[in-house]
Prior knowledge:
Blueprint lengths: L8 E4 L5 H5 L8 E4 L9 H13 L2 E4 L13 H14 L3 E5 L2 E3 L3 E6 L5 H18 L4 E3 L14 H12 L2 E5 H11 L3 H6 L6 E6 L3 E4 L2 E3 L8 H14 L4 E3 L8 H18 L2 H4 L4
Parallel strand pairs: 1-2, 1-12, 2-3, 3-4, 4-7, 7-8, 8-9, 9-12
Antiparallel strand pairs: 5-6, 10-11
Amino acid sequence: MTHPRLHGAGLGLRRELIPALQAGVPPAIDFFEIAPENWIDLGGRHARDLRRFTEAHPFVCHGLSLSLGGLNPLDQVLLRKIRAFMAEHGIDLYSEHLSYCSDHGHLYDLLPIPFTEAAVRHVAARIREAQDILGGRIAIENASYYVAAPIAEMSEAEFVNAVLAEADCWLHLDVNNVYVNSVNFGFDPLAFLRAMPAERVVYLHMAGHYREADDLVVDTHGAAVIDPVWDLLDQTYALFGVHPTLLERDFNIPPLAELVAEVKRIGRLQAAHRPAAARSGTR
Length: 283
């Protein structure tokens, strides 16, 4: 399925990019993504800038701090603020990471959840609670990780599937994270993709990373996307069809033109996988 109002290729809205985007949003950019935690409760110029963009372009909210796998109670105050923020700006889709990032305070990192039946039930209950407060389904992103939890009763793919089914939520499929984990833990990324439930995929991420060693890749969002990840996106579209796809770039942010070139590459891959009748209307 495709989420309402969202289509094409998008870019994360970073404040560093706002001056260039105010001069004109390139037509290759179909939508933007923001972390609501970075914008909620802001006033003044930043709020006015955001309002001008959300009035003119579709947006996605991608959360950073809900800590769905954590043990502390969900931050219901934050969730209510996110719901109000999304309503204020006409944003339909909220996604969060399948990880945890708090333990009596924020840890400022996304940490892996043990792949166990108990963890499935725990995380799914928290996702359902978040969905109840937000008033609709959310999308859960497969996370990158570097150290496996000491207890594992299933594979990562089995864990993701179990959580999605138990929580009845959508899947935010991060293609770069699939690649990163496949290198770090020695599995076939295409086999992982084939194991994902096509009916739950609504949204995709693409990003660059840093290769520390032959068997260690760090998901930095601080570099250009590499060819093997582009190839994996091509295979993802072949498996699941075309879904809204965002380019993430959070560090070492280059001039807008460099990012737009990657957004255009996403658009070209999407056009190649659309049915022939639809391609006649593509840019």
